Amino acid sequence: GNSVTQMEGPVTLSEEAFLTINCTYTATGYPSLFWYVQYPGEGLQLLLKATKADDKGSNKGFEATYRKETTSFHLEKGSVQVSDSAVYFCALNPSASKIIFGSGTRLSIRP
Amino acid sequence: GAVVSQHPSWVICKSGTSVKIECRSLDFQATTMFWYRQFPKQSLMLMATSNEGSKATYEQGVEKDKFLINHASLTLSTLTVTSAHPEDSSFYICSARMPRTSEPWSSYEQYFGPGTRLTVT
């Protein structure tokens, strides 16, 4: 079946620290992979995506590489800011009509 | 960017009553909208896929008579929780899909509403 597993939070870091949020997946076929972010009181926003193996998605300093050999799509950022505090969801779409989400990782950044 | 709104943002109702939640795409037409349910500290679970002008497709285990979905226009879908009970209390999130015909289906992007928190007492 199709599933997404991401590291449990909460994750608390100091400003300017390096961030990694792990995400692994199981899937049939060749899904696209996504990271969504949910800021407090807001809806989910697409942060970045990758549509095929070895693609790297990037946005706002965040990056994630579609690794088929390790079935992973880890989210990284070199220097986090307080404004990055949010809940991050890893997701995949096994078909045009579905997105399967991980459980979400809450990130808190201390000034 | 594409904006999706939901109304209300939160609602409290008594057990046995029905509640309607609206999902609107504000600046684009959405032929397909999705309804999700999110339990505390858990994933978003897809409840149903709503296509404009046709019946919704429900996921396995979702009661279609309890969660009525109507997608009467290209910018509005509604979810009605009928005869609500405390176990229906949850965070309900909708999304709308804007198809990109120039790219493979796998990159179709969904735009999410801010969610509606339902509490049934």
Short structural description:
The complex is a heterodimer of chains A (111) and B (121). Chain A is mostly beta strands. Helices cover 0% and strands 54% of the residues of chain A.
Characterization of this structure:
The complex is a heterodimer of chains A (111) and B (121). By secondary structure, chain A is mainly β. Chain A contains no helices and 12 strands. Chain A is globular and about 45 Å long. The radius of gyration of chain B is 14 Å and the shape is globular. In chain B, the strands form 2 sheets. In chain B, strands 2, 4, 5, 6, 9, 10 and 11 form a 7-stranded mixed sheet that branches. A 4-stranded antiparallel sheet of chain B has the order 1-3-8-7, with no helix packed on it. Chain B has strands at residues 4-7, 10-13, 19-25, 32-38, 44-51, 57-58, 67-73, 76-81, 90-98, 109-112, 116-120. Chain B is mainly β.
Q: What's the Cα radius of gyration of chain B?
A: 14 Å
Mean pLDDT of chain A: 92
Oligomer: heterodimer
Could you give the distance between the termini of chain A?
41 Å
SSE class of chain B? mainly beta
Unreliable segments of chain B (pLDDT under 50, ≥5 consecutive)? none
Shape of chain B: globular
- Can you count the beta strands of chain B? 11
Number of helices of chain B: 0
Low-confidence stretches of chain A: none
- Termini gap of chain B: 37 Å
- Helix-strand sequence of chain A: EEEEEEEEEEEE
Order of helices and strands of chain B: EEEEEEEEEEE
